[in-house]
Every structure is written in structure tokens, then in C-alpha cells.
């Protein structure tokens, strides 16, 4: 019987915004996305100045990691558009 090794993948993404306030606002609005991940996927973020540092790890599937990243990016894009519209 062939044993397959578990797939482990991780990604770190740095997103740069105009200022710290926007980065914090977007990070706070996307925090639920960090908590609602598929089984075996861990997601976390932190603020460093005007940057959001995003970390995603998957212990099962690269596809789960990519889906989580895509969901996160969709929420960030929506949050960023909302902030831009409110600032006008």
C-alpha cells in the first residue's frame, strides 16, 4: 500500500495601503474571514504601519489555501472600495 504524504502549504502576503487607518479598518472588517476557514486551514493577520501582513497555512490541500486567500482578497477589495466611497 502506498502512503501519501500530507500536503502542507503556507503563504504570507503583504498588502500596502495609503495609511495606517485604512489598513486597520480593513483588517478589522476582515477578521471574521480569518476565523471562518476550512478544516485544516489557519489564517491570521497583523498590522505593521500601513501594511496588513496575512498568513495562511493549510495542512490538507493547496486548493483550500487558495480558496481562503481568494475569499480574503474579495473581502479586502470590498472593504477598500467602501472606504474609498465613504471618503469622497
Structure write-up:
It is a single chain. The protein has about 90 residues and is α+β, with helices and mostly antiparallel strands. It has a single domain (about 10-85), classed as Alpha-D-phosphohexomutase, C-terminal domain (TATA-Binding Protein, 2-Layer Sandwich), CATH 3.30.310. About 50% of the residues lie in helices and about 25% in strands. It contains two helices and three strands, in the order E-H-E-E-H. The chain has helices at about 20-35, 60-85, and strands spanning about 10-15, 40-50, 50-60. A three-stranded antiparallel sheet has the order 1-3-2, covered by helices on one side. Strand 2 (about 40-50) and strand 3 (about 50-60) form a beta hairpin. The longest helix has 26 residues, at about 60-85. The chain is elongated. The chain starts with 8 loop residues before the first strand and ends with a helix. The mean pLDDT is about 85.
Radius of gyration: 15 Å
Q: What is the CATH architecture descriptor? A: 2-Layer Sandwich
Large-scale geometry = elongated
**Percent helix range:** 40-55%
The CATH superfamily appears as Alpha-D-phosphohexomutase, C-terminal domain
The overall strand count is 3
How many angstroms separate the termini? Answer: 63 Å
| Count of helix runs | 2
SSE topology string: EHEEH
Query: Briefly, what CATH class?
Result: Alpha Beta
Give the rounded overall mean pLDDT.
87
> Assembly state here?
single chain
Biggest sheet strand order reads 1-3-2
| Structural class based on helices, strands and sheet pairing | alpha+beta
Strand content: 25-35%
